[in-house]
Design brief:
27% of the residues lie in helices and 41% in strands. The chain contains three helices and 20 strands. The chain has helices spanning 6-35, 109-145, 150-183, and strands at 48-54, 56-79, 84-89, 96-97, 102-106, 185-187, 192-197, 204-205, 210-227, 239-244, 247-259, 269-277, 288-305, 310-312, 315-321, 327-331, 333-338, 341-346, 353-357, 368-372. It has a six-stranded antiparallel beta barrel. Strand 17 (333-338) and strand 18 form a beta hairpin. The longest helix has 37 residues, at 109-145. It is elongated.
Length: 378
């Protein structure tokens, strides 16, 4: 058997120890790597599928934001055209009606009886008119033959004219009665909401007596008092937007329909009326509004689609795709709106890729798979 030299044995043990230590250090290094987490893109959340739109720089008009009050563009007191007793009343307060809907009905029995009487009188008059027409024709023939006198012809003509006038008068009276009967059904002259009841079942209405107050709400006006220094920049027909403290998130589009050139002598403000759409009926007359309208010159601004901006209480944020394929959350200050776009006064620059779809589920640093989405140019 071969014997190991003592020196060789020491070297062998030394090498064995070094090997064990090296293996131990390798295990510790692996454990350290695992403790630090997986490399980016491996083992973390999968990339979120989102759509982005590139921020643009455009020239927009300067805007002025002022408080205003919502007013009804049309407020009408619907009245009765005839006298009569109310036998049906459906114009209850708060009821939304369409043009032509029934608000009330009046009793028409007397009118219908009078109509029947006048129809009978018309039949008699028409019969007598026909007889007078035949008599006149014979009188003309006899007068031409020399048998009848001129006086007899004139009498026949007079009789005919009298019955012709009588039939015409009866026809007009029948038409009037029929119109009264139709007016006994009181209908809404336009689509709106009943704001006030002015009569009740069984009540007698005189001609012109009020039935209901009807409010047009599909379109409303916002009255704004504009300071004198901005008066020169106002333009009729200019676009405007309105927001409402009591209706968070709602923005109504509108336009300037009236600029009243008579200033309040104390406040030195000019009344301006803005027409806004209210097709869904959410806005009520009397609400307070904040109105933004054009007030003169233009300036360069960065805009993004309104879909990119997320409201978190009073804070506004959006997400931008960064160079590493993830997103950054940016607090932004918004400004004027232009159709589907909104001005970003700070936080974003032209060319940034802002998330417009899928942004509600993002968080800072989340990897994304972003696909471009185009909007109509502002």
């Amino acid at each position: 058997m071969r014997r190991t030299h003592p020196d060789q044995s020491g070297n062998f043990l030394h090498l064995l120890a070094r090997g064990v230590c090296g293996f131990t250090l390798t295990l510790l290094a692996c454990a350290s790597t695992l403790a630090q987490g997986d490399p980016p893109g491996k083992g973390g959340p999968p990339p979120a599928l989102v759509r982005y739109t590139v921020a643009r720089e455009i020239e927009i008009k300067q805007t002025l934001t002022l408080p205003g009050s919502v007013e009804a563009q049309t407020w009408s007191t619907v009245a009765s055209s005839i006298a009569g007793q109310v036998i049906e009343f459906t114009g209850r307060e708060g009821r939304r009606v369409q043009a032509g809907d029934v608000l009330a009905r009046l009793r028409t029995t007397t009118l219908e009886l009078t109509l029947d009487s006048q129809k009978a009188s018309l039949k008699e008059a028409e019969a007598r008119l026909k007889l007078a027409e035949s008599t006149l024709a014979r009188a003309k023939d006899l007068q031409e033959s020399g048998v009848a006198s001129k006086q007899q012809l004139d009498d026949a003509q007079s009789e005919y004219n009298a019955w012709l006038g009588r039939t015409d008068a009866l026809k007009a009276e029948i038409a009037r009665i029929r119109d009264d009967i139709s007016q006994a059904t009181i209908r809404a002259p336009f689509s709106g909401v009943v704001a006030r009841e002015r009569t009740e079942m069984g009540q007698w209405l005189a001609v012109g007596a009020p039935v209901v107050d009807l409010l047009l709400i599909d379109q409303l006006e916002v009255r704004v008092d504009v300071p004198e220094k901005h008066f020169a920049g106002l333009r009729a027909g200019a676009s405007a937007t309105a927001t409402f403290e009591s209706l968070p998130g709602l923005t109504a589009q509108g336009r300037v329909i009236a600029i009243i050139p008579q200033a309040d002598t104390q406040a030195r403000t000019f009344p301006v009326k803005v027409l806004i759409d209210n097709a869904h009926g959410r806005i009520g007359a009397g609400m307070l509004a904040q109105v933004s309208l054009a007030a003169g010159g233009t300036y360069r601004a960065t805009v993004v689609p309104k879909d990119a901006v997320i409201s978190r209480g009073e804070k506004r944020v959006l997400y931008v795709v960064n160079g590493s394929g993830s997103v950054d959350e940016l607090a932004v200050e918004t400004g004027a709106g232009s159709r589907q776009w909104i001005e970003i006064r700070r936080g974003v620059k032209a060319g940034d890729k802002v998330i417009t779809r899928g942004n509600e589920r993002l968080s800072p640093g989340r990897p994304v798979s972003a696909i471009p989405l185009e909007y109509e140019k502002p």
